[in-house]
Amino acid sequence: MTDVSLDYNQPSKPIILGLILTLLLIIMSLSRGLPPLKVLHIDIFRIWSVIILGISSAFIILRFSKRITIDMNVIIFSIFTVYVSLSLAWTITPFRGLSRLFTLFEAATLIFAGITFVTTRRRFNAIIVIVLGVGAATMCIAAWELMTGSHLPASRLSLSKFYAPDAATAVFYNRNDFSFYLSLLIPIGVKTGLDARRLLSRLLGILFVIAAMGIIWTNGSRSSLIAGITGIVLVSIGTVLRSKLNRLSTIPRIGVLTYAGIALASFLIPLLFNNPFSIPDQGSLHTRYRLLEIGVRNAAEYPLGTGLGGFPEVIANSPLRPERVRTPHSWAIQLLVELGVPGVLLFICLFGRVTDQLLYQTICGDNWMALPLATILLITPVSSIGPSESLYMPELWLVLALGLIYQIRSTQGWPGE
Length: 417
Known about the structure:
mainly alpha
């Protein structure tokens, strides 16, 4: 463990950190729907994340002076961020890599500002309300899309060649991205519907889950549908059987095993089996299988990866490249191609450890957010197979940040209470 200085007894101006946190949550959730203003190939709205990072970091350093313990998962996240940053030294696409790095900077800001600001359960609950509120707002946009057949300019469905009146993307680029986002919120909605104190909150939680699952079903997003159903089942069973779960003294490392198992399957299946999907009947699955084959072959030549943001270039230079498709559709293959074996191991260790510690808090008697947050992280490696580039979606790092903040506060205490 490592000690740093933070003082919760001094005037900490929590309103400022709260505003920073809220602004970042909104930017991370809606950044794809903001106007596409770019400077040197970098989305200008992602530049704001770096500014926010600098301001919040300076504020934390200057304002706090009492010792708290930094969790090992924060150290692993920091090592992962440093390694990702170093990969810019050998990346084959520096501008694209730099823009992708901003997503990690956003996550870092949220984590460190969150650890500092979220000192009470009430504040963490406020963050959850913001997250669900943003999710509800996107579903209202989706309802408008389905009723009118119109789409926002941020959506590719607004283009004539992709137009689909029976699908919804809200502020996201495509339907799979939106479905991925909704599937990650479903466990919190289930927990609210089952356990909220007020009847109205329970009804809203149930309505949220029904609406999210309906949109995912309408979009035909297979991985998100599986993840959503799994999330409903796990949170429901865990809530009903929590008294029995509390009797357990330990559990296996389900989180690490889940992430490692899906990653290993993504690497080994293309090596052991030929592409089982036919182009005319199962074109998208055939294409995604070819992407896995290309990624595994490339990893043999570049064990440290080709650098952040390099996947599209690898696909473009491969003789096996699919027509027009240069996005990985797999978090595991993208990690392997761009960040190599070290990146894969750090990612699995980070997400798996946070998941396992939240599960452990669940069996230790936490009846609040440990279960839904652990469930979100458990279904993430399945749901994230659908989006084009889930590794760089802010929503992926948002759920990690929420899980990490809650895990740290639950184990170290809520100093503001």
